[in-house]
Inverse folding.
C-alpha cells in the first residue's frame, strides 16, 4: 500500500467497514506521514492527523483550533453552495457560545447526575439479557441488543415516551448511517441525513412546547426551559440540543457494545478472563471503546497559521482528528494492537479531548458496564454464527451485523 492509497481510507466509507484495511493504512501514515494532506474531488482538502500526541495537542488548543465552520468531514456540496444545516449544536459551536450551551446540561452528565439513572439502566440491562435468553440461543447482537438498549437509556434521560422508540431508532440510524446503502433511505439516498435531521427537529419542536407548558423532572424539560442571557433558549437551539443528545448518545454506544462483543469473540482468552473476574468490567468496557473507537473523526479549523508535527498549516485550513488511529499509536499505548480487558492506564481518545470532550462519557460507561456486568456471568458459551459486518460510514460506526449462538444461564 502506498501513502496515497493509505490516505484514501478517510474519504472512503468502505474503509471503516474493514478494520484490517483501516488499521494497516493508519499505521503506515503514523509512521510515514502523520500530518498528511488529503485531496479528493468530493471533499475540500484537509490534513489527516493520525498520531495520538498531535490529535491531543490540537483538541486541547481550542484557542487555535475551532469547530466551526467544519466540525466533521462530510461531502462537498454538489452545487458549490454551503449546506444549510437546520440545527446548530454543541459540536458546531465555539466560544463564547459553546460553554454557555454546554453548561445547560453539564450537571446531568456528571457522575452525580448520571447516578440517578443507575437503577433504570441496570433494569434495562437485565431486560436485554433476558431478551437474549428469550431469543433461544441465537440472535444478531448488533440488531437485537446493541442497537436499541442505549436508545432506551437516552429516552429515559430526556423523558420521552417509550412508544416513540421505533421512530427514534430509525432516525438516529439514518443520521449516522447515511453512507451505508443498507441504512440509507431508498427514496432519497443523497439527502438521508438531512431529511432525518429535519424530522428530528419537527418531533422535538412539539416536545419543547409541551415541556414549556408542563415542565417535568428530566433533561428534556431542563433544555426546553433553559435561559441564555436572561432569554428563553431559541426553539432551533433547543431542538438541536435534543437531536445531538439523541444521536450522539445512541449509535456511538451501540457500536462500542457490539464491537466490544466482537472483540471478545475474537479473543477467547480475554473473554474467559473477564467472565472469571467481574471486577474487570470497567477496564474491559473502556478497552472496548478504545478498540472500536466508534467516532471515526471530528475536524478542527486553524484560526491562525500554525505548525503540527513539523508541518505548516495556514489559517483557515482544516485537520481531521483520527481517533481510531490515535488509539492504536504505539507511542501512547503499550502493545496497542493487543485487546486487553485489564488495560491500565488506558487514556484513549475515543471520547475526544479538550472543551468538546464527550459530554456522555459517564453515561456511556454506566450503560456499557451495566450490560457486560449482567451478561458475562450468565453467558456460559458464545460463538460467531456468521460473518460480522461493519457499517460503511465516514463518521460513527461499528458492527451492523453480529450473528451469535450462545447459552445463557
Ligand atoms: C461509547 C460511546 C461514545 C463515544 C465513543 C463518544 C464519542 C464522542 C466524541 C469523540 C466526541 C467529540 C469530542 C471532541 O470533539 O473532542 C463526543 C462529543 C459528544 N458526545 Fe459522545 N460519545 C459516546 C457516548 C455519548 C453519550 C452516551 C452521550 C449522551 C447521551 C454523548 C453525548 C455527546 C455530546 C453532547 C457531545 C458534544 C460535546 C461538545 O461538543 O461539547 N456521547 N462524543
Amino acid at each position: 500500500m502506498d501513502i496515497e492509497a493509505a490516505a484514501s481510507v478517510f474519504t472512503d466509507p468502505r474503509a471503516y467497514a474493514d478494520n484490517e484495511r483501516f488499521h494497516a493504512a493508519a499505521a503506515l501514515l503514523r509512521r510515514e506521514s502523520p500530518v498528511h494532506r488529503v485531496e479528493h474531488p468530493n471533499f475540500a482538502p484537509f490534513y489527516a492527523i493520525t498520531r495520538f500526541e498531535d490529535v491531543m495537542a490540537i483538541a486541547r488548543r481550542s484557542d487555535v483550533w475551532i469547530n466551526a465552520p467544519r466540525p466533521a468531514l462530510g461531502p462537498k456540496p454538489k452545487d458549490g453552495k454551503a449546506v444549510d444545516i437546520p440545527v446548530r449544536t454543541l459540536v458546531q459551536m465555539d466560544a463564547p457560545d459553546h460553554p454557555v450551551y454546554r453548561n445547560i446540561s453539564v450537571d446531568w452528565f456528571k457522575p452525580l447526575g448520571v447516578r440517578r439513572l443507575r437503577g433504570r439502566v441496570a433494569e434495562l440491562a437485565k431486560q436485554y439479557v433476558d431478551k437474549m435468553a428469550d431469543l433461544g440461543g441465537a440472535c444478531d447482537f448488533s440488531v437485537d441488543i446493541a442497537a436499541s438498549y442505549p436508545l432506551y437509556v437516552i429516552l429515559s434521560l430526556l423523558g420521552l415516551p417509550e412508544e416513540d422508540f421505533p421512530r427514534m431508532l430509525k432516525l438516529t440510524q439514518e443520521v449516522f448511517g447515511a453512507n451505508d446503502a443498507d441504512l440509507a433511505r431508498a427514496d432519497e439516498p443523497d439527502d438521508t441525513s438531512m431529511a432525518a435531521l429535519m424530522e428530528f427537529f419537527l418531533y422535538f419542536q412539539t416536545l419543547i412546547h409541551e415541556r414549556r407548558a408542563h415542565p417535568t423532572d428530566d433533561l428534556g424539560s431542563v433544555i426546553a426551559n433553559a435561559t441564555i442571557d436572561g432569554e428563553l433558549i431559541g426553539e432551533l437551539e433547543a431542538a438541536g440540543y435534543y437531536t445531538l443528545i439523541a444521536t450522539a448518545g445512541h449509535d456511538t454506544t451501540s457500536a462500542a457494545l457490539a464491537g466490544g462483543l466482537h472483540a471478545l469473540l475474537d479473543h477467547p482468552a480475554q473473554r474467559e478472563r473477564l467472565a472469571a473476574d467481574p471486577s474487570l468490567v470497567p477496564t474491559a468496557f473502556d478497552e472496548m471503546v478504545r478498540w472500536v473507537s466508534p467516532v471515526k473523526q471530528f475536524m478542527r479549523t486553524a484560526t491562525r497559521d500554525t505548525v503540527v508535527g513539523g508541518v505548516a498549516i495556514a489559517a483557515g485550513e482544516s485537520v481531521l482528528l483520527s481517533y481510531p488511529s490515535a488509539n492504536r499509536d504505539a507511542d501512547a499505548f503499550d502493545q496497542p494492537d493487543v485487546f486487553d480487558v485489564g488495560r491500565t492506564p488506558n487514556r484513549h481518545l475515543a471520547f475526544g479531548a479538550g472543551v468538546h470532550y464527550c459530554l456522555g462519557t459517564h453515561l456511556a460507561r454506566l450503560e456499557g458496564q451495566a450490560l457486560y456486568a449482567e451478561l458475562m456471568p450468565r453467558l456460559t458459551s458464545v460463538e460467531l454464527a456468521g460473518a460480522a459486518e461493519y457499517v460503511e460510514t465516514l463518521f460513527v460506526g461499528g458492527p451492523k451485523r453480529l450473528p451469535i449462538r450462545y447459552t445463557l444461564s
The longest strand covers residues 43-49. The mean pLDDT is 92.
